[in-house]
Amino acid sequence: MARIEDYALIGDLQTAALVGRDGSIDWLCLPRFDSAACFAALLGDEGNGRWRLAPTGATISTRRSYRPGTLVLETVWDSAEGSVLITDFMPLRGEAPDVVRIVEGRSGSVEMCSELVLRLDYGHVIPWVRHTDGQLSAVAGPDALWLRTPVPTHGENDSSVSRFRVSAGQRVPFVLTWQVSHLPAPHPVDPEHALSDTEDYWTQWSSRAQLPGRWQDPVQRSLITLKALTYAPTGGVVAAATTSLPEQLGGARNWDYRYCWLRDAGYTLQTLLDAGYFEEATAWREWLLRAVAGDPADLQILYGITGTRRLPEWEVSWLGGYEGATPVRIGNAAAGQFQLDVYGEVIDTLSRARDAGLAAEADSWDLQTALLDFLESHWTDADNGVWEVRGPARQFVHSKAMAWAGFDRAVKAVQNSGVDGPVDRWRALRQEIHDEVCAHGYDAERNTFTQFYGSKGLDAAVCSFLRSATCRRPTRGSRAPCRRSAGSSCGTGSCSATTREPTPAPAARSTACKATRGRSWRAPSGMPMR
Fold first, then answer.
1. Stated pTM of the model
2. What CATH number is associated with residue 272?
3. Interacting residues of 441 by C-beta distance below 8 A, sequence separation 6+
4. How many domains does the chain have?
5. pLDDT tens, 500-521?
6. Exposure letters 243-272 (e unless 16+ CB within 10 A, then b)
7. 108-118 pLDDT per residue, tens
8. Which residue in 324, 340, 367, 425 has the most C-beta neighbors within 10 A?
9. Structural domain boundaries enclosing 37
């Protein structure tokens, strides 16, 4: 099985596939990110579905890369017989989702093999496969797929195999298309035209980015990946294209991340705004306003890509998990958790969007005031925290700090943006939360904030304070005191990760503070410390 870091991602802004260095697509959900997988070898073995396209007998490709500024993947295979290039991509969605793979001979004559193992319903259902009109069709329940290629395909051990030779200058395309089974086959796409259109789209999108002077290539690649995780029809942004990749190899903390976490998507929004992508930021804000509409007490930490609230969690008993990490889970029960910080995260995200110049929207401020009304009555409640702890609720320091942030953004909105609100009451609540956190969430002996009230444990999440505090440059081995803030009443505070790595709480996603070491900076938000 390939290492997680050896997979490359291709997608069409509605779903995504993972391509290994061995030429195998081991994960693909159709037609959406959160649909059942037709290739699930990533979480099992090749019998759970995959599509391998590579020279016969070859194991690992020679080299690969994306075409600059695109999500078009190019993989080179060099051998004694010659050299071939395989181009993998997913065209922007038209009538139906497609995966296109084009084999190009570069030198010599190379024997190739395509092995298509379709297993629907997360690697569980073997479809009924037929060969008609020069194409392969596969049907099972609600799903139908078609493989179109000019080379012959035959059945072999419950898979569809094509063996052929490609010489210098030859191009052999494969196009896999999905459709609901009760509809006729979609019109075929022209693979070469689809390649040109896909490259043009991504190149034009990438060219709009406002990139920093340094690290332009990795920043651009990160932006493309964030865009690829956007569900274009609604503007929602998934946390990942996969489910159940383990936090620890062989462990049980394997969660389904094919949904929209408000907190994570907020970070994505800020990144897109910083890069000048206002259209995507606006689409996400509109998704948010639709998803959270209703009673603020019912706010969830995550939603489905269309704003769906119910995400029941179940275990896939027939998948062995990535390197044996079980169980494999579909859905996410964390949707029902109470995480106090999300209220502040949403308010902070909308505040940042406003500060960045995103066009004002009346519904946006109405939502924020409704969230503030709820937060006013519930900021003292214990919660499950940013790490989605499946245990007793706690008074998590990070959660309280984000409640503080919610009222802080509201005060600044009234002061700077001309919106209406009870600013004096919000200012008083901001101070009250600040004082409580400093009194109960701070360990003066060790000069550090803790994970929750009364805890001795540290928490990487509190390092997010550094996004907004004004911190002096620490000397090596010293603590990092923060400057006095007007109205502050707590003692000297710091994030211990300025000098050494913290011990984070068990988590599916961890936050590191390395990027803030040795830096003195100020962001327009956050909890002031002295």
1. 0.85
2. 1.50.10.10
3. 395, 397, 400, 449, 450, 452, 453
4. 2
5. 223 333 333 333 333 322 222 1
6. bbbbeeeeeeebbbbbbbbbbbbbebbbbb
7. 999 999 999 99
8. 340
9. 4-183+190-204
